[in-house]
Amino acid sequence: LMTICCFRRTNLGQAIRARSTLRHNRVFILANLSFGHGVVHCYQQALLVILPFVQATMGFGDVSYGIVGTVQATSAAVLSIPGGFVVDRLQRHWGPILVCCMAVASLSYVLLGASPNYALLLIAVILVTLAGTAWHLPATAAISRRFPDRRGLAISMDQVGAQAGNFIGPVVTGALLGLMFWRDIAFVYVAPGLVTAIVFWWFFRGLGRSSGDYDKQVLRVWLREATQLAANPVVFGMVIVALLRLGALNALMLWVPRYLLDPVDVGGLGMTPSAVGLHFALLTGTG
Known about the structure:
Blueprint: H1 2-23, H2 26-58, H3 62-89, H4 94-114, H5 118-146, H6 151-177, H7 182-188, H8 190-203, H9 219-231, H10 233-261, H11 273-285
Helix pairs in contact: 2-4, 2-5, 2-6, 2-8, 2-10, 3-5, 4-5, 4-7, 4-8, 5-6, 6-11, 10-11
C-alpha cells in the first residue's frame, strides 16, 4: 500500500509540474494569446454585422448610426494611452487583465441583447470596444517579452489569430441572422467568451510574474517621456499616417454592412444576411 501511495503521489507531482511547465511554455502562451485575440475580434466584427439590424429595430437615423462608429474609435483612443501606462505598472496582473477583457467582451452582449434604447446600445458598444483595446496592451507586451529574439514573427502570428476572428465572426453572425433574431444571437454569444475566460484563468494566472523586472516609473516621469516621444517628428508622422488609415478603415468597416444589406432601390446591394456576413468577412480574409 505504501508503494502504491508513493507511486500515485509521484505521478500526481509529475502531472502538476508538467501543467506548470506547460503554462510557462512560450509557444503555448503565444497560441492561446492568438486564440484569445481571435475571439475578441469575433465579438468586435460580429457587432458591425448586427448593427444594421439593430438600427432597423430601434429606428434611429444614419447620423446616430455613424455616431456608433465614432463612439467605438473614441473609447479605444481614450483607453489606449493611459492603458499602456497602467498595464506597465500592473505587469504581475496581466493574466487577470486578459481574463477580465474576455469576460467583459462576452458580457457586453448581454447588454446588447437586452438594450431597449440607443443609449444602452452605445454602452454595449463601448464595453466591447474597451475589452478589445485593453486585450491588446498586455497581450502584445507579453509576446514581446517572451519572444525577444523573434518578436516580429510572434506578433505576426498573434495578428493571424485576430484576422481569423475578423473572418469567422461575420460569417457565423451572418448565417445566424438568417435563422434568428439579433437579440437572441447576442445572448448566444455570451457563452463562448465566458467559457474562454474561465479556461484562460488557468492558462494565464502567472503570465506577467515571470517576465523579469520592470521599471515602476512615477507618473511625472512617464508623462515627460511620453511628451518627448510624441514630439519626435518621425513618431508624429507615424501617428498622422495611422490616423488617416484608421479613419478610412473605420468608416469602411462601419458602412459596408449597411451597403450590402440595403435594398437596391435605396442604393444598396440587397444581399441576404448570410451573404452580408460572407462578403464583409472578405474585407479581412485577405489579411
